[in-house]
Automatic annotation (TrEMBL):
Location of the Alpha-N-acetylglucosaminidase tim-barrel domain: 3-77
Organism of origin: Coptis chinensis
Protein name: Alpha-N-acetylglucosaminidase tim-barrel domain-containing protein
Entry-linked Gene3D superfamilies: Glycosidases
Length: 108
């Protein structure tokens, strides 16, 4: 209710929401697509400082697709934020390559 009031206090078309932690805890699912406000599905991967080969590949493969094709979707884009150049590049390859598909990228 509070989120809906906040989002609707700004004239429609004047704000785009960043769902920054969408690959772990997608708020678009809990908020009915941000109550009609356009949003960006984001992959904020390592928060600057975590040097490891880590990524929830099945979620990165399916998350943006699920958000884009879900009923009444208001997703306008996906985005990735890489704060450390030594991160696991396979994670970013999967997200970027998946932009061109209407289905999940196969992990096999």
């Amino acid at each position: 209710m509070v989120l809906q009031a906040l989002l609707h206090s700004v004239p429609f078309g004047k704000m785009i929401v960043l769902d920054l932690f969408a690959y772990v805890k997608p708020i678009w699912e809990e908020s009915s697509q941000f109550y009609g406000t356009p949003y960006v599905w984001c992959l904020l991967h390592n928060f600057g400082g975590n040097i490891e080969m880590y990524g929830i590949l099945d979620v990165i493969s399916s998350g943006p697709v699920d958000a884009r094709i879900s009923q009444n979707s208001t997703m306008v884009r996906d985005a990735l934020f890489n704060f450390l150049h030594l991160s696991f590049s396979g994670v970013y390859d999967m997200l970027v390559c998946g932009r061109w598909n209407d289905s999940e990228t196969s992990l096999a």
